[in-house]
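A student in our group prepared the protein record below, which I am reviewing. What it holds is a sequence and that sequence's fold in token form. My question to you is simply how this chain folds and whether the tokens agree. Do not assume that whoever made the record got everything right. I have pasted the whole thing underneath without changing anything:
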Amino acid sequence: MKETSDNKGMKTSYGIIWRILNTLDLAMDLKELPAKELSAEKFKITETRFQRYLEMLQKAGYIDGLEYDDDLDMEEPAVNVSNLSITLEGIEFLITNSTMNKIAQVAKNLGYIVAEAGADAITALIK
């Protein structure tokens, strides 16, 4: 297994987890979620990683209804996503992290403004 020292994997994991929760939030009006909308293939990850994300999300209380299809022909059981639903904690996660992303973007934009204004402008503001 290849290991990296950067945080690229962390961003990828966070982004996929956010997208899984967002998909479930958007699907709240549906009786049953189409399997193609919530699949390893959709998120371009392995089935094993996808199942682990779903297990983590359920253990954290962000989703509910995770089930497995026990097919004897398969090496490991596949997840059944048709009964998955987002919980109140999952919705709170989406809201909190959406807000944090907006705050981070504003801070980044302020950094650009400050950089353009120069150190003299900042010194004048502080005094």
